[in-house]
Amino acid sequence: MLDGKKILYSGMQATGTLTLGNYLGALKNWVNMPDEYECLYGVMDLHSLTLRQVPAEFRKNARSLYALYVAAGLDPEKNCIYYQSHVSAHAELSWLLSCFTYMGELQRMTQFKDKAAKHADNINAGLFTYPVLMAADILLYQSDVVPVGVDQKQHLEITRDIAQRFNAIYGDVFTIPEAYIGKAGAKIMSLQEPERKMSKSDENANATIYLLDDKDTIIRKFKRAVTDSGSEICYREDKPGISNLIDIYSSVTGCGREDVEREFDGKGYGEFKLAVGEAVAAELEPLQKRYKELMADKEYIDRVIKMNDEKAAYYAGKTLRKVQKKLGLTERIR
Ligand code: TYM
Fold first, then answer.
1. What residues line ligand 1, using a CB cutoff of 6 Å?
2. Among 131, 229, 317, 329, which is 20 to 30 Å from 42 by CA?
């Protein structure tokens, strides 16, 4: 609880440009969360360092991510949007929690296994302990709810396990967080290989819609989307391509899957793909416009970053001090 409100916490890695998957699986849900929560959103730049970054590009990407959060509709005067690396308590708590996390637990993480296979030349310790830093992010703010896409569910489970383990020894230190996974859009798939998740780092540019793609590009990518045999527009396990497009259309328009099937009953794939492309482009247009304005307003963005960094550091510091005290670390003399 913060000021009597439940706490909602989430964030994204500051790598590359956000995808439609990031938007529909997470960002859009954040914007639509009811007012009853006190919300904090991190630009997760420390997590991004598990892959090599080009410093100047990385700095730009982090800023761009901040602006995208705001452009999507998160008001930085009401939501605490801050940089993870600006609050040193994240790295500190991460170390403390790593002493309460088992190697076996981390070895079971599917994201670690996937990323280790993909980046076999750089399986660094940070990639392995990534979930511990994520647990620290969440637990520092005594978060109640964490809205994420399906792929982060396992990381939420380990966060809960670590928190429960710690609480069992030291008393009620951490709030046990719950994952919030939206009904539609929680797992948007690649437009070219619909059995794989849509991802920022796909080598085939046609597989991913980026939030800053222009209308023509969006429509072209949807027109080229891989679909299944047959011609019926229906949501079925053996039709992963069409099911993915239905999911996208459904989460953009807010219509249920059955409504989408009904709307396109008897219509061809071509017509449906075009409609999905147009709906996505229309959804992203105001966000892109606002994004451009924000990126040009350096003073405003700098001001809200500073204000929110301080706010986040204040809340995080409280939890960190409590944890240090429980563990028996000697208090600083002031
Ligand atoms: P990241 O940056 O990989 O993804 C950010 C959010 O987007 C969701 N997402 C998707 N949802 C649906 N379909 C997709 N294809 C898709 N791709 C990504 C992710 O589930 C996520 O919600 N570890 C986190 C960042 C993080 C974090 C945290 C999140 C660090 N600390 C604390 C919550 C709380 C991550 O890698 O997200």
1. 9-13, 21-22, 25-26, 44, 47, 134, 137-138, 146, 148-149, 151-152, 155, 186-188, 197-198
2. 329
